Amino acid sequence: MQNLIGIQIDNYRIVSVLGKGGMGIVYKAYDTKLDRFVAIKMLNSDMYDRLKFIERFKREAKNQAKLSHPNIVTVYGFIEYDNLLGIVMEYVEGESLDKILRRQGRFNLYDVFYILKQILLGLGYAHSKGFVHRDIKPSNIVLNKEGVAKVMDFGISKSLFDDSAVTKTGAKIGTVYYMSPEQIKGYDVTNRSDIYSLGCTAYEMIVGHPPFDYESEYEIMDSHLKKSPPKISSAIAGIPEIVDELILRAMAKNPNDRYATCEEMYEEVQRVDQQVAKLYTNYFRKTEARSATYKFMSASAFALFFIVLIGISYFVYTQVDELLKSNALEELKKYNIEALFSSPEDEFSFKEIVRIQSPVDVNLNGISFSGNTFAVAVGDSGVILTSNNNGQNWKLIGYDKKVNLSDVYCSPLGKTIIVGDSSTILYSANFLDSIRTVQVRGGYTFFRVKFIDEQTGFITGSDGLIMKTVNGGISWYKVVTNTKDLIFDLDFSNDRHGIAVGWNGLMLTTENGGESWHPIENVKFDNYIKSIDITKEGYCLAAGGDATILRSINYGKDWEIEKVAELGGLQKVLFISENYAVVTGSKGILMFSKDKGNTWNLIESRIYSNMNDLELSPERELFMVGVNGMIFKIF
């Protein structure tokens, strides 16, 4: 996007940059007519389906302009300049809550209640006007210099009274740390979804980190669906349990168990605030005097601690010495690439892991090679990267920045299918020289796209969705799955038999080419299964939560389940030959098997970041993509 500082657009003179985000750049500008500063969020609209984008942009600006409340950032209107569109809004001199959290760690409990009540007033007003924010989080709440809290960025809000709204019900919109269970499942989003996200935000303000603070997106999502957050009273000394009760009700899994309205939650916050004030007052009255006896006990306690410390040190020394003299540590050894593939009979000769320069810093979720020199990688904020030299260099072409793209498939003839949030399916027949959108209703989140031949392909998604194409991806139709769980991945051993995997250990199988699916009953695994790969000989490998690998040697009829390490979640499993398989996942996990997944070797990758997808190039080089635009090559 071009630099606009110093340029005058209508009656607005651009002064400086306030920040950059997924939607564009926010500028500070001076309104020469009304003699005031404003903020202008500029978006680059030079993208596919421009007319539809402009219409949606104007709709959002008009929606926001309907909201006038002291705890909501006011929108004045929109402007157009050159190839850009901008929302003109109130300039707030202050900081967002996430910046304050990064600087000071967490908030005083009194400040949390003070800010929370203001946000509830603003959100309650928006809900009464028929709007749901859908992305409440610390970065969307700003505190001005007078201490007034304001909600900003209703850019993905949805009018409850407008059935023709472009932002459809069921689209998975929001930020995963603060996303309600119904958003994750792709269900209807209501005012109670905002209350859930506000509960997550309040939790982070008190504790200093989100309620489900994991590195893997799917571990976070799984926790939103299944787990209760750790008690605040256990994490922070002096926090009474009534605060836990407040936050836990706001974050109830079932929307009907949450506060029905912001007004109801406001009254509860007010009551808890008053009770906490009384508790704190009584506490300080009781503990302000310290006696000489207390000082003596403190000294005695320190001496005892010192003696215990010496004993622990001796114990640790003797135990470690015994461990080193034994060979027990060898069982935990991490291999480097060259050592693992040094044998002459190795099918592959991997020697090194190198990072490839990437033009983006957003999460990359999928990568595919066409079979010649063309490759594509896709990610969040509409990122599409292409390479014409087998992944050695990449360039950005991009799509709608509001859509997160999940996966991509490339055929040797140049056909490319890309899938993502909001029922997004992109189709190209010519190596992405031109792209068209395949229309699909329902607001689904798509996770994986796979083809079993040139014409037959499948897409997995939220709400138990599997879609099939028999004409190369030009059109798609739903097939029968009889489940509402998220389906992450699928694979086929032949044109008739396939297996699909998803949430809660879900495994489905088909024997009719994917027209209908039914559960595999003998698999007992209660975590998510993220990825599956099947050979024509019937060897099946599936990977999922808790670094667990599921293995079958008979086309999925019987399964072995093994937790291979205490390493977090796995994201992708791939057979790279008849015998060799590779797995990647969170915290830079990289494991190889030379015996069809029977045993695994952990590679010391030194990546330490989540890897989301991997693929073997025509040059027999492995490529991995992950968070912050990371691309790695193993060769």
From TrEMBL:
The keyword Transferase applies. It comes from Melioribacter roseus (strain DSM 23840 / JCM 17771 / VKM B-2668 / P3M-2). Its EC number is 2.7.11.1. GO terms for molecular function: ATP binding; protein serine/threonine kinase activity. Pfam families: Pkinase, PSII_BNR. Residues 12-269 form the Protein kinase domain. InterPro entries: Kinase-like_dom_sf (IPR011009), Prot_kinase_dom (IPR000719), Protein_kinase_ATP_BS (IPR017441), PSII_CF48-like_dom (IPR028203), Ser/Thr_kinase_AS (IPR008271), Sialidase_sf (IPR036278), WD40/YVTN_repeat-like_dom_sf (IPR015943). Keywords: ATP-binding, Kinase, Membrane, Nucleotide-binding, Serine/threonine-protein kinase, Transferase, Transmembrane, Transmembrane helix. ATP binds at residue 41. The chain crosses the membrane at residues 296-317. This is non-specific serine/threonine protein kinase. It comes from the Bacteria. It is an enzyme of class 2 (transferase).
